[in-house]
Design a protein that fits this description.
alpha/beta; Glycerol-3-phosphate (1)-acyltransferase; globular
Length: 277
Amino acid sequence: MNMIVLRSFIFNALFFGWSTIYLTVCLPILLLPPRASSQVGKIWTRTTFALLKFICKLDYEVIGLENLPDAPFIVASKHQSAWETMVFSVLLDHPCFIMKRELNWIPLFGWFTARSGAIGIDRSGGASELKRLIALSREIVAEKRPIIIFPEGTRVPPTQQIPYQPGVAALYGQLKIPVVPVALNSGYFWRRRAFAKRPGKVTLEFLPAIPPGLPRKEFLPRLVDSIESACTRLPVPVHHDSPFGPQSTDTAEATDKAGATDNVLETAAAVPGEPKD
């Protein structure tokens, strides 16, 4: 058996076992204020990352922390993998994730994300859902918490680019707070719906913040250019079994048949489309 597949199998077994036991033990914390559930998530994430490092030999580095302004601010992150849906809970203080509402219905995991104050959205809700999102986001801003959004709305391989959803521009315009673009290369190590977690080091970079006040038509191209150009500068690992090249038979079969961890961690923040002027 391919060692990457074997290590990934061991990781998944420990991940689901640890998650079930830990979150069950922590159920009484749901009765406490939202910040307590955020702390549960932070410990869960740190343990998950320790398992990734020890078993899958997958570590990470963070660049550009000096670019983070005082909260509140919006983090607009590139979305390549399930990995980045976890990392911000350990890098930022009590962040609010914008995520598809169905994730809040997942037993244990969803209960804690909902209690922590994550905003679950109906991606088919249109203008009314966008208004609701903005209203809830204003409450988060009043609490001086960072907001996490993935403007692509879905995970995209590192070698591809899709249009960004306009909802991030609506939040930027309505909330009038800085937006911090984030570049990363996680998709080279843990791709969408993939079982295999490849060894190496994920790089995440916080880019200089975009100040509030720009016109909408100027903001979105600036955000896209900032993230996409930075991603092209990040390290590209050389794998003997590249996620975008030929795969071994074992890895290909495992990738196609088992993406269970991804299904739990998917935080797709496809904000409903902004109403036309």
